[in-house]
Write a structure and sequence with these properties.
The protein is about 50% helix and about 15% strand. It contains eleven helices and six strands.
């Protein structure tokens, strides 16, 4: 059973999301919060698998709340759910560890699929914001908001590790990467873990940012 918490300052949205998600036989909404501060208080009592996080909330907004949650509860997945497709929100939410970013117009099946995807270790972006993310990552690659990887570790990546990082940067899941490279998912996970360690990066979201900002994500796979 996937345990979900919802943080949104609009009562109707919180309650509506709870109703539709509880209809999924594999999901249970275990908490509703009207702002980021209340969400953090709830997390101290019980930990969900996924948090659906609104961006604009009073007291503690979704971006800063994402940062606080991932610092204290790194295993909790976060999907930013908002009516705003502002570039800065997209970038910072992903930078702080969000696994997905969806606009509130998304359908219930798409939202349910996104929740299952991030729980299984994938990431989910609304198609409408992917172009913005890629463009912004490149614009900000040299800024203090860019992800910084270990340069020596980057040079030590094997061909397989670089190919996996390249495909992570293109938004592919482990299963899709395994199919593309004709590996088992276990081999992909092991190489992904090794690459994260060499790069001194926290998770696949940071790796995706690194792959985009370095240009790796738009290069061809290395044969051999």
């Amino acid at each position: 059973m996937i345990k979900v918490m919802i943080a949104d300052d609009q009562d109707l949205i919180r309650e509506s999301l709870k109703v539709v998600l509880d209809m999924n036989p594999d999901m249970e909404v275990i908490g509703l919060a009207e702002n980021g501060r209340l969400l953090l208080e709830m997390l101290a009592r019980k930990e969900p698998d996924v948090v659906l996080m609104d961006v604009r909330m009073p007291e503690l907004d979704g971006v800063l709340c994402t940062k606080a949650v991932k610092e204290k509860y790194p295993g909790v997945k976060i999907i930013i759910l908002t009516t705003f497709d502002d570039d800065e929100y997209v970038y910072n939410a992903l930078k702080y560890g969000a696994s997905g970013y969806l606009l509130k117009g998304v359908s219930v099946p798409e939202l349910s699929t996104a929740i299952r995807t991030v729980v299984s270790g994938g990431s989910m972006l609304n198609p409408g914001v992917v172009t913005k993310v890629v463009r912004l990552f490149n614009q900000m690659a040299q800024s203090n908001l860019a992800v910084e990887a270990d340069e020596t570790g980057a040079e030590e990546l094997t061909r397989t590790e670089r190919n996996i990082a390249r495909l992570v940067g293109q938004g592919l899941s482990n299963k899709e990467i395994a199919e593309r490279l004709k590996f088992s998912e276990g081999t992909v996970r092991n190489n992904l873990s090794a690459a994260l360690s060499k790069l001194d990066l926290r998770d696949r979201t940071q790796m995706a940012i690194w792959a985009v900002q370095t240009g790796l994500a738009v290069t061809s796979l290395e044969e051999g």
